[in-house]
Amino acid sequence: MVKLITKDNVHKFAHAAYLIYRFQEFFTHIVEVNNPKLYPCVYAMWHAHQCCVHGIEDKENLNILISRSKDGDIVAYICEKWGFKVIRGSTGKKGASTALMQMISELKENRCCAIMVDGPSGPPKIVKEGAIKAAKLGGAPIVPVCWYSEDPTWLKFNSWDNFRMPFLSCKLLNLYGEPIYVNPENTPEQDEDCRLKLQNALLELEKQAPSVYKDLKKKKAWKQKKSK
User: What is the pTM of this model?
Assistant: First the structure.
C-alpha cells in the first residue's frame, strides 16, 4: 500500500490540516465545567479526546506530549501554530525518558502539561504510567478531562482510539474531574493505585458527561458564552 504521508510531504499535509482546523475553530463552541485551573498540573485525557485541549484557554502555558511519528508531526505543527508548546516523545526508552524529563522541567517551572494517557497506540482506555511519573516527579496534580457532545457533527472515526472531532457547528463540553495527587514517596504499588484511580476517573467522567451536557443545554450555556 502506498503511503500518502512521507518525510518529504508531511509539512504540506500538516499545513493543510492546520487550515482545516483553523476553519473549524469558528464553528467549535466549548464550555468548560469544573476546570480547577491549577498551576502546575497534568491534564490527562484519552487519545480519542485529544482535541479537547483546544478548550483550555491558557495555551501559552500548556505543553502537549506528542509522539515522534509522521501523524505526530502533523499534530505538533497544528498545536504550535495554535500557540501551544509541544514536547515530542516516543515509545522507545530513550525517547520516553527525554520527554518525561521535559515534562517534569515544565511542571517545576509552574507550567502545565497535557498527555493522552492511552496513547500513542493503545490499547484504548487503559492508562499508561507516564502521567503518574510526571505528576510524581514534577510535584503536580493530575486533572482528568473528557469532552462530549450530542450534536451529530461530533464525528467518531474508525480508528483504534475512536478519535472524536467536531465538523462544522458543534456545541461541546469539556468536563474536568477532581485533581489526583501522587505522593513523591509512593511505592510502586501506590503508584499503581493512582494509575487505576485516574483510569476510573476518566471512565466516570464519560458516564457523567451526557447528564451534565443536558443540564448545560437547558441553561443555554453556549448561548451565554457567545454573548460575553
Answer: 0.92
